[in-house]
Design a protein that fits this description.
It is found in: Cell envelope. The chain is an alpha/beta fold. Helix content is 43%, strand content 18%. It folds into two domains: 180 residues, Rossmann fold (3-Layer(aba) Sandwich), CATH 3.40.50.2300; 125 residues, Response regulator (Rossmann fold), CATH 3.40.50.2300.
Length: 374
């Protein structure tokens, strides 16, 4: 469990961490485990579903990462398998920005005509928009890519928080870097935008590494989940902090003027950092992780460029959203948990092709049915 002091340092006390929430609400853990069985099982077609569900989706999907697009494909496939009639209105915006556009889309599209809103929460303005929807409409809110309920919503939580817990994924990456560098290392961090995701993925990583022995953060940058900005930041990071011929510091167990790895907090950031390393011919000298394990990251792993990643069992989140709506339409919303957090697999360059194929078949079991994700 993440300590309260760490949460305070990261300014995350306003959120319930997953394990903390389940400990305080044991009935939610039972409900989540039962719900996960539905997500992992073959779909059971609904009976007497005559109404059409009106669904509005606003996603930060204008990025290289295919997470959001795959989520939509999995969501729709499962809705159809469940026999749910639906009207789907999807809008993609830029990650970490376009907040005014998101507000405009909500105002124009919601009214009293939307049954379900699928949105995200990464900035304070998102919280205000969600509160506005909660207070002014009967729309049920599904928050994607966040699995930590806001304490401010108290007993009036959104219909569902769904995704892959950022803290769990980050802990896996912390453990992998500490295993790879048992004597410590010099590293840099590339954050996204200044918001929730960067705090969990980047801030928690920094906190955990600071507590470890001989891990030295040389510099960090906010790059707005933008590939070009990540490349530029990496070039500057290497210019300022990487002299590969520097002598070893035997006390620290690392080279004082040599970067060992760069921690990336998203797919686009990882690919931008790799662009810089390849330009400088350093892709074999400095390790870089991925975050999410989508197609572009896996291709980079196969090419022996990306060092490793945490791979989300991607389509489970879209399936979970469809199953939650199905239960709600059947009048069984009491079976829908407040949180659904999917699972990860750590994947590196040594993984056997057959094993990776098994992971891909599971993670993309619906979204690979669409040619749009290839």
């Amino acid at each position: 469990m993440i300590s309260s002091s760490v949460l305070a340092d990261l300014h995350l006390k306003e959120y319930w961490m997953v394990d903390e929430f389940f400990k305080a609400n044991p009935e939610q853990l039972e409900r989540s485990e039962a719900f996960n069985l539905r997500v992992q099982s073959q779909p059971k077609r609904l009976i007497n579903n005559t109404d059409s569900a009106r669904i509005l989706v606003i996603y930060p999907g204008l990025q290289t990462s295919d997470y959001w697009r795959r989520s939509i494909h999995a969501f729709e496939h499962r809705l159809k398998q469940l026999g749910i009639r639906y009207q789907l209105d999807v809008h993609f915006t830029k990650p970490g920005s376009d907040l005014n556009l998101q507000a405009k889309l909500l105002t124009q599209s919601l009214g009293d005509t939307t049954d379900y809103l699928v949105f995200t929460l990464d900035a304070i303005k998102h919280q205000k928009l969600i509160e506005q929807v909660k207070h002014q409409t009967q729309t049920k809110i599904i928050l994607q890519n966040i699995t930590t309920p806001l304490r401010a919503f108290s007993k009036q939580q959104p219909f569902l928080y769904v995704g892959f817990d950022h803290a769990i994924g980050t802990q896996l990456l912390v453990q992998e870097y500490q295993t790879r560098f048992p004597q410590g290392a010099n590293y840099g961090i590339l954050f996204g935008t200044q918001g929730y995701v960067s705090k969990i993925r980047g801030g928690l990583f920094e906190s955990q590494m600071r507590a470890a022995h001989n891990f030295h953060l040389k510099d960090s940058y906010y790059v707005d989940f933008d590939r070009a900005k990540a490349k530029a930041a990496t070039l500057q990071l290497i210019k300022d902090h990487h002299q590969p011929d520097a002598s070893a510091d035997t006390n620290a167990g690392t080279h004082t003027n040599k970067l060992d790895f760069i921690y990336a907090t998203s797919t686009d950031i990882a690919l931008g950092a790799l662009d810089a390393l390849k330009e400088l011919g350093l892709e074999q000298d400095i390790q870089i992780n991925g975050w999410g394990g989508g197609s572009s990251e896996l291709n980079s792993l196969k090419a022996k460029e990306l060092s490793f990643t945490v791979m989300r069992m991607n389509d489970d989140n879209g399936v979970a959203m469809a199953e939650a709506i199905g239960l709600d339409l059947l009048g069984k919303s009491d079976q829908v948990p407040t949180i659904y957090s999917g699972s990860f697999r750590l994947v590196d360059q040594t993984i056997k092709p057959k094993q990776l194929n098994r992971f891909e078949s599971r993670a993309f079991r619906y979204s690979n049915l669409s040619s749009e994700t290839h």
